[in-house]
Amino acid sequence: MATLKLEIVTPEAKIYSEDVDMVTLPCVEGEMGVYPMHVPLMTQVSSGEVTARKGGTDYHLAVGEGFVEITADRVAIMTDMAIKSDDIDEAKAEEARKRAEVRLQEKLSDEEAASVTAALAHSLAQLHVKRRNRR
């Protein structure tokens, strides 16, 4: 069976690099499923959950905004945040969410508001992945 090379990188490190059977990722147009031999594509990634299926097992990661390049045999995600489900600290993510929501109530410059909104999206993505995969 054909596979895809899934690579997820952030400015700090390569977070994931494995051959997988299928990838599901959040894009600005909605959730996208990618199988081997996909048509070449480049699009924006939204904050949310990436699911990599390998050998019948699903692996979940929370990701921030970024870009994805898809070819017939490769999915390369470049994002500002990526954390494997097992590495998410739910208490810290919940605290970050609360701090961001409080900050958004304050009078902020456009730049500060964009930064706080991104932090809120990161914490919500982490909470979604951690809580969804705990069930």
CATH fold naming of the largest domain? ATP Synthase, domain 1
Large-scale geometry = globular
Element order, helices and strands?
A: EEEEEEEEEEHH
Report the sheet with the most strands, covering strand number, pairing sense and barrel closure: 5 strands, mixed
For the record, the CATH class of the largest domain is Mainly Beta
Instruction: Work out the count of structural domains.
Output: 2
| Radius of gyration based on Cα positions | 16 Å
- CATH architecture of the largest domain, by name, is Sandwich
Strand order of the largest sheet: 2-1-9-8-5
Helical segment tally? Answer: 2
What percentage of residues falls in helices of 4 or more residues? 25-40%
Identify the quaternary structure here.
Answer: single chain
| CATH-defined superfamily of the largest domain | F0F1 ATP synthase delta/epsilon subunit, N-terminal
Structural class: alpha+beta
Total beta-strand segments: 10
Instruction: Kindly report the average pLDDT value.
Output: 91
Strand content: 35-45%
Description:
The protein contains two helices and ten strands. With 135 residues, it is α+β, with helices and mostly antiparallel strands. The protein folds into two domains: 4-85, Sandwich (ATP Synthase, domain 1); 88-132, Single alpha-helices involved in coiled-coils or other helix-helix interfaces (Up-down Bundle). It has a five-stranded mixed sheet with strand order 2-1-9-8-5, with no helix packed on it. The radius of gyration is 16 Å and the shape is globular. The chain starts with a strand and ends with a helix.
